[in-house]
Amino acid sequence: MIGKVLERGKTAIVLVPEISLTPQMVDRFIARFGEEKIALLHSKLSVGERYDEWKRIERNEAKIVIGARSAIFAPVKDLGIIIIDEEHDTSYKSDMTPKYNAKEIALYLAKENNIPLVLGSATPDMETYYKAEKSDGLITLKNRANNSKLPDVEIIDMKKELAIGNKSMISTRLHEMIEKNLQNKKQTILFLNRRGYSTFVMCRDCGYTATCPKCNVSLTYHIKQDRLKCHYCGYERKNFTECPECKSKNIRYFGTGTQKLEVEINKMFPNVKTIRMDIDTVTKKNSYDDILNKFKNEGIDILIRNTNGSQRTSFSKCYTSSE
Ligand SMILES: [Zn+2]
Ligand SMILES: [Zn+2]
């Protein structure tokens, strides 16, 4: 696509997450298009280097701009295409002032210049996926890189599990698979998109729910400290056994998190070694790498991990380094 755009005398912007701006990745572009046509913009550049790249783009010498999110502002001439790789990556949203979302700016530029915007990902953002499907813009790769096989995926309806009397978080099928893994001395990784123990605590008599006074979201129960925490701003308070509104003692815990999953797994498989990895277990002394190394080297059977933005990045980072 970039080749075609260049043939027409136009230019291209390619955004990649900062972490992907590796020499190997850049070398591929250089091998295909030549160094003089490419400008690189990323945070490791000095102000001087950044200025030089900026000027090369402005003079229309560099036809392809490759960079992290801020490269979307590059002063390109006659833009022909914008490509955003790993579009689901959270780094495209700037959390520094001025706050912006490079994806939204790209969409604006694409409309303004009447050019295509390509969002690439093996694990697209739900929002992007939905929009692409709706607008007939979804292009699916039929084969994976190196023709490797797709993993088998099964979706289990937990309502049906409830109907057969299984009230736990683990479906009969998953239980079977974990057991099989244990017998075969293989490891299991369980992912859950929530941390903590219960996602909300409610009074069954008056319906009172503990919420964060600043963010107005329900507080998550953390069993170890017996405290309620806001996962948005970090606000926390003591747990309560008596409703602050109606004094009822009929307090119930709803929803689930990684802590509860760990408790359940330990109950189901009492002799199994588990380890949990989420922001609550990761400290300076116990880093992601440490936990993953333990998982690798200390005969741990089940790793329970939380799937969330920045953690995912660190996970893939240490994963590649240990590979
Ligand atoms: Zn109450
Ligand atoms: Zn809060």
Can you describe this structure in just a few lines?
The chain is of the alpha/beta class and 323 residues long.
> What share of the residues does DSSP label as strand, in percent?
15-25%
Estimated helix fraction: 25-40%
| Average residue pLDDT | 87
> Which consecutive residue ranges, at least 5 long each, have pLDDT under 50?
309-323
What distinguishing features does this structure have?
323 residues; alpha/beta; Rossmann fold; 3 domains; three-stranded parallel sheet; disordered C terminus; binds zinc ion
What does it look like?
- The protein has 323 residues and is of the alpha/beta class.
- It has three domains: 2-146, P-loop containing nucleotide triphosphate hydrolases (Rossmann fold, 3-Layer(aba) Sandwich), CATH 3.40.50; 154-193 and 260-323, no CATH class; 198-255, no CATH class.
- Helices cover 32% and strands 16% of the residues.
- A five-stranded parallel beta sheet has the order 2-3-1-4-5, with helices on both faces.
- The longest helix is centred in the last third of the chain and has 14 residues, at 309-322.
- Bound molecules: zinc ion (2 copies).
- One zinc ion is lined by residues 203, 205-206, 208, 243, 245-246, 248.
